[in-house]
Design brief:
Length: about 200
């Protein structure tokens, strides 16, 4: 079994990563390491933020660390909220607050069906002992729904409809979402690197 630490305190994300990787991996997050200090996400891109988190945490815990930074890019909002997806409605905002702000902004700019194109983007960085071992990216294209639909997932899942589907990520079963999602794509690519490290 390959053990790794995810540089996050988001238990939803940790659970999703464990589901994607399967029983070959044992996934923990920094909640299991209270000595790990909070890492400011000061980067201007998903890759930069993922690298910052992976490197910082890998200096504080033994073994392999992965960190992801991901978010929603909406064409009608000039690619926003982008790297600010998690903080879009303020640092204390709930997922519902963020989704409602997104829908309000789309209504404000009168975004019709044709300009509600969006994508989820995820970059995963792999590090060990303060050394970056690589980064990978996953992207899923889709559009923003007119209203919140579904109670599964987290973040913007209830308003994101992936291409080829009528349901939002919030309505799709976890096993379907994880097969097509941005995080699923990036984590599976990271798993290849992790297996190579294990064999090295």
């Amino acid at each position: 079994m390959i053990e790794l630490v995810v540089a996050t305190r988001n238990t939803h994300k940790t659970r999703e990563i464990q589901q994607i990787l399967g029983p070959e991996f044992k996934v923990r997050d920094v909640l299991a390491h209270p000595e790990v200090s909070k890492v400011p996400e000061t980067g201007t891109s998903f890759e930069e933020n993922a690298r910052i988190k992976a490197l910082a945490v890998s200096k504080q815990v033994p073994g392999v660390v992965i960190a992801d930074d991901s978010g929603l890019e909406v064409d009608a909002l000039g690619g926003g909220p982008g790297v600010y997806s998690a903080r879009y409605a303020g640092s204390k905002a709930t997922d519902t607050d963020k989704v409602e702000k997104l829908l309000n902004e789309l209504a404000r700019v009168r975004a019709n069906e044709n300009v509600r194109r969006a994508r989820f983007r995820c970059v995963v960085a792999v590090a060990r002992n303060g050394n970056l071992l690589g980064t990978v990216e996953g992207v899923v294209e889709g559009k923003i729904a007119d209203e919140i639909r579904g109670e599964s997932g987290f973040g913007y899942d209830p308003v994101f409809i992936p291409d080829g589907f009528e349901q939002t990520f919030g309505e799709l079963p976890a096993e379907v979402k994880n097969t097509i999602s941005h995080r699923g794509e990036a984590i599976r690519a990271a798993a290849i690197k992790l297996r190579q490290l294990e064999l090295a």
